[in-house]
């Protein structure tokens, strides 16, 4: 398992980054264009939000899927029975966002979206012809102006010691979407499963960006790009008393985008949300 950390400004960045995605499902970027002070201020203002009571006024809307998902209702990963130890807020530009937190979150949403479009261009340019011809349109076009792209602010609370047996911060899962952009979190814990079946720490130097393939890109590429299992393990030692904040942007194609002969983006997503138990 070799998740590469690639310098965004290096001349061979696109090729090396795409190679890392193809072999591991993950790639890490340093010297990327997302300002670290923006990420850090989002972490700190949302930590305050999760620590307060206001969040309960934003209870998630089962139809629209925006808003606050408490630890009591947060998802159970596909194939698992215990809930993850996490709470989170789903941000869509058209959805509810606490007014005091909206400016930075939306700025991040825009910047990370633009970077994701560029990275999808890298992926496409470095795909073999037989993979490229499966794409119903350019990958970057699939996400352009998509109202379905979701920014999730996640807060993994400190551990109380009363967690259910076997519960993890995030149980092993694959992401549903095309591509995920995830700034390194404020605490470690993210692991990816190798083809050897073992769990490996994803490089998480603060300031880097982690990018991973989701199921929709695996589907659209006929399996050429793997959507690999990953998880967030529980901290030990001093880390048990700390919250972990992370900020994945899940790049989702517009509903009508054709992923494969079997699925559009919408039909694929609906199937997966029903499996997660967060949609009827
Ligand atoms: O918190 C993390 O580092 C990863 C979160 C994740 O994998 C997810 O929400 O899909
Ligand atoms: Fe994930």
From TrEMBL:
Pfam families: 2OG-FeII_Oxy (PF03171), DIOX_N (PF14226). InterPro entries: DIOX_N, IPNS-like_FE2OG_OXY, IPNS-like_sf, Iron_ascorbate_oxido_reductase, Oxoglu/Fe-dep_dioxygenase_dom. Its cofactor is Fe(2+). Pathway: Alkene biosynthesis; ethylene biosynthesis via 2-oxoglutarate. It is an enzyme of class 1 (oxidoreductase). The keyword Lipoprotein does not apply. Residues 146-253 form the Fe2OG dioxygenase domain. Its EC number is 1.13.12.19, 1.14.20.7. Belongs to the iron/ascorbate-dependent oxidoreductase family. This is 2-oxoglutarate-dependent ethylene/succinate-forming enzyme. It comes from Chitinimonas lacunae.
């Amino acid at each position: 398992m070799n998740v590469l950390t690639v310098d965004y400004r290096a001349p061979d960045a696109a090729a090396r980054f795409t190679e890392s995605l193809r072999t591991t499902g993950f790639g890490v970027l340093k010297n990327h264009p997302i300002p670290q002070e923006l990420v850090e201020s989002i972490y700190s203002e949302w930590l305050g939000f999760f620590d307060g009571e206001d969040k309960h006024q934003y209870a998630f809307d089962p139809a629209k899927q925006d808003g606050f998902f408490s630890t009591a209702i947060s998802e159970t990963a596909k194939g698992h029975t215990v809930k993850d130890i996490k709470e989170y807020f789903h941000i869509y530009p058209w959805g509810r966002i606490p007014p005091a937190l909206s400016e930075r979150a939306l700025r991040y949403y825009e910047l990370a979206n633009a970077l994701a479009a560029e990275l999808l261009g890298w992926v496409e340019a470095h795909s073999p012809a037989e993979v490229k011809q499966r794409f119903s349109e350019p990958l970057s076009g699939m996400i352009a102006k998509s109202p379905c792209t979701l920014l999730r602010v996640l807060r993994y609370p400190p551990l109380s010691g009363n967690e259910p047996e076997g519960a993890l911060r995030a149980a092993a899962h694959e992401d549903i979407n095309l591509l995920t952009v995830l700034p390194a979190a404020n605490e470690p814990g993210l692991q990816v499963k190798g083809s050897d079946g073992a769990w490996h720490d994803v490089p998480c130097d603060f300031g880097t960006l982690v990018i991973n393939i989701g199921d929709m890109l695996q589907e659209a590429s006929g399996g050429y790009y793997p959507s690999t299992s990953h998880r967030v393990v529980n901290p030990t030692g001093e880390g048990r008393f700390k919250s972990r904040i992370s900020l994945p942007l899940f790049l989702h194609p517009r509903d009508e985008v054709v992923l494969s002969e079997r699925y559009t983006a919408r039909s694929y997503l609906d199937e997966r949300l029903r499996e997660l138990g967060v949609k009827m």
